[in-house]
Design goal:
The chain is α/β, with parallel strands linked by helices. It has two domains: about 110 residues, Arc Repressor Mutant, subunit A, CATH 1.10.10; about 300 residues, tm_1862 like domain (pyruvate-formate lyase- activating enzyme, Alpha-Beta Horseshoe), CATH 3.80.30. It is about 40% helix and about 20% strand. The strands form five sheets. Strands 9-10-8-7-6-5-4-1-13 form a nine-stranded mixed β-sheet, with helices on both faces. It has a three-stranded antiparallel β-sheet with strand order 14-15-16, covered by helices on one side. It binds iron/sulfur cluster (SF4). Iron/sulfur cluster binds next to loops.
Length: about 450
C-alpha cells in the first residue's frame, strides 16, 4: 500500500482514545445501572422471541499471569476453583434464561478468558451441556473459543471439536524467544505448530492466531520472521493487536521490561510490516487490526461494506442481542450494555445470594443508538453513507451528528477522508487514524479521564 505517514503526522494524531468496541465507551457506563435495569433489558429481549442471540461466557482462569496481560485473569492451578466457578455460572444461567422467555436460539457462542482451555475435559463437557440445556444453539452458527497452546494438547483440540466448537483462536503474540521472555510468556514455536496442525486435523472451520506488536525487543527483522512463520502456517485469520502499556491500570505490566520497548515510530512500522506481509501473502486487512484470507467471509464482508463488530470481535453475523455470563463479562442487549462484577469472590457471592451480578451498565439514549450505528459502521467499513441512519431512524445524518460531521469532513484537507456526494470515505491514509475520526463523532468524549483509561492510536 503506497501511503506516506510522516513522523510529524503520527506525533500529532497519536493520542489516547477509545477503540470503540462499544459506543458509548465503558467509562461512560453508570454504576447505578443495577439488577432491576438488567431485568428490564432481559424482559425487552423476551418480548422479541424471534430475535437470535449471541452468548459469551467468561472463563478467567490461567495457570500463570503473563506480564503483558491486559485481560481479567485469575491465576490458579486447582481444578476445584474452576468447579466452584462453574457452579456459579450454572446458577447465573438458571436465573437469566427464564427471564429471556425460554430456550432461545443462539447463532454465536464464544468462550473467552483468561484461558478457556484451562478447563479439563469434564469441566468443558459440563459447561457445554449447561449451555445446550439453556439455549437452542444453532450447530451451523459460530461456536468458538480462545485457547493457549502452552497448556493445550492434541487430544484436547479433538475433544473441543467433539463438543461442537467449530472456530478457535490460538494465542501466539510473537515467536521470538527474547520477546517471549520479556513479556513472561515462553511458548516455543513447535508448540504453536503442533496445536495449529491439530486444529486442522480436527476440522475446525476457522483458525485464528493472535499476534501483538509493540512488545519489548520486537525489531523489524524479528517481527518480520514472526509474520513469515505465521503466514507459513496459513491461518484463516490473524488478529494483530497493538500492545497497550498501561501499568497504572494493569499493575502486572510493571513486570514488563520497558527498556526494550520500541518507540512509537518503530511500533507503527511493525504494524505496517504486518500489513505489507499479510497482504502480499493473500490476506486482506480487515477492520483496525485483523487480517483474513481473501476468500474468508470476514474479508468478503469487509469488501461488501457489511462488516460488524461486537465485544467478541469482528463478525459477519450480528445477532440482535448478546447475553454474557461469568465474572466481568459484558452483554449488549435491548439497547443496553451490562457488565458483571469483575472480582471473583464478589461475583460468586452475589450469585450465591440469588442476585444477578451486574455492577454497571448503560441504557442507550436515541442519540447514543444513532452514534453507535455510525461509529461502528465507520470503524468497520471505513465509510459514512449519508443515508445510513434513515432505515432505522428516518433521520438524515447531519441532523444526528451536527458539527461532528463537519469536523469529520474537515479531515479532507489532511487527506484522511474524501467527501463524496452520498458519503464520506476514509482514505487509505485516514485508515491509520480511524479512531481519531470516530472520536469526532463521540458525544461523550472529554467527560471522562481518557488519558487514564484509553491507549494511544499507535
Ligand atoms: S495473556 Fe492470556 S494466558 Fe496470559 S495471563 Fe492473560 S489471559 Fe492468561
Amino acid at each position: 500500500m503506497d501511503v506516506t505517514v510522516t513522523q510529524e503526522m503520527l506525533a500529532r494524531y497519536n493520542k489516547p482514545g477509545p477503540r470503540y468496541t462499544s459506543y458509548p465507551t465503558v467509562p461512560v457506563w453508570r454504576d447505578d445501572f443495577g439488577e432491576a435495569d438488567y431485568r428490564a433489558a432481559l424482559a425487552d429481549v423476551a418480548a422479541a422471541p424471534a430475535d437470535a442471540l449471541s452468548v459469551y461466557v467468561h472463563l478467567p482462569f490461567c495457570a500463570e499471569r503473563c506480564a503483558y496481560c491486559g485481560c481479567n485473569a485469575t491465576v490458579t492451578r486447582r481444578a476445584e476453583v474452576v468447579d466452584a466457578y462453574l457452579d456459579r455460572v450454572e446458577r447465573e444461567l438458571a436465573m437469566v434464561t427464564p427471564l429471556l422467555g425460554g430456550r432461545r436460539r443462539v447463532v454465536q457462542l464464544h468462550w473467552g478468558g483468561g484461558t478457556p482451555n484451562f478447563l479439563n475435559y469434564a469441566q468443558m463437557q459440563r459447561l457445554v451441556s449447561l449451555l445446550h440445556g439453556a439455549f437452542a444453539i444453532d450447530s451451523c452458527g459460530e461456536i468458538s473459543l480462545e485457547a493457549d497452546p502452552r497448556i493445550g494438547t492434541v487430544e484436547q483440540i479433538h475433544q473441543m471439536r467433539e463438543l461442537g466448537f467449530n472456530r478457535i483462536s490460538l494465542g501466539v503474540q510473537d515467536i521470538d524467544p527474547q520477546v517471549q521472555r520479556a513479556i513472561g510468556r515462553v511458548q516455543p514455536f513447535s508448540q504453536t505448530e503442533t496445536l495449529y496442525s491439530a486444529c486442522r486435523e480436527a476440522g475446525f472451520a476457522s483458525v485464528n492466531l493472535d499476534l501483538v506488536y509493540g512488545l519489548p525487543y520486537q525489531t523489524a527483522e524479528g517481527f518480520s520472521n514472526t509474520l513469515a512463520a505465521i503466514i507459513g502456517l496459513g491461518p484463516d485469520r490473524v488478529a494483530c493487536f497493538s500492545y497497550a502499556h498501561v501499568p497504572w491500570v494493569k499493575p502486572n505490566q510493571k513486570q514488563v521490561d520497558v527498556t526494550g520497548m520500541p518507540d512509537t515510530w518503530s511500533k507503527f512500522n511493525l504494524f505496517r510490516s504486518a500489513i505489507a506481509q499479510f497482504t502480499a501473502a493473500g490476506y486482506d486487512w480487515v477492520g483496525m487490526d485483523h487480517f483474513a484470507q481473501r476468500d474468508d467471509e470476514l474479508a468478503v464482508a469487509a469488501r461488501n461494506l457489511r462488516l460488524h463488530r461486537n465485544f467478541m470481535g469482528y463478525t459477519t453475523r450480528p445477532a440482535s442481542h448478546m447475553v454474557a455470563f461469568g465474572m466481568s463479562s459484558i452483554g449488549e442487549l435491548a439497547d443496553c450494555f451490562v457488565q458483571n462484577e469483575h472480582h471473583l469472590g464478589r461475583y460468586q457471592k452475589t450469585v450465591d445470594n440469588g442476585r444477578l451480578p451486574v455492577v454497571k451498565g448503560l441504557r442507550l439514549t436515541d442519540d447514543d443508538k444513532l452514534r453507535r450505528m455510525v461509529i461502528t459502521h465507520l470503524m468497520c467499513n471505513l465509510e459514512l453513507p449519508f443515508d445510513l441512519t434513515r432505515p432505522a431512524y428516518g433521520l438524515p445524518l447531519d441532523e444526528v451528528l451536527g458539527e461532528g460531521l463537519e469536523r469529520l469532513a474537515a479531515y479532507e484537507s489532511e487527506g484522511f477522508v474524501e467527501v463524496q456526494p452520498r458519503r464520506i470515505v476514509v482514505t487509505p491514509l485516514g485508515r491509520f487514524f480511524v479512531r481519531n475520526l470516530a472520536m469526532e463523532l463521540d458525544a461523550h468524549l472529554g467527560k471522562t479521564s481518557e488519558k487514564q483509561i484509553f491507549s494511544k492510536t499507535v
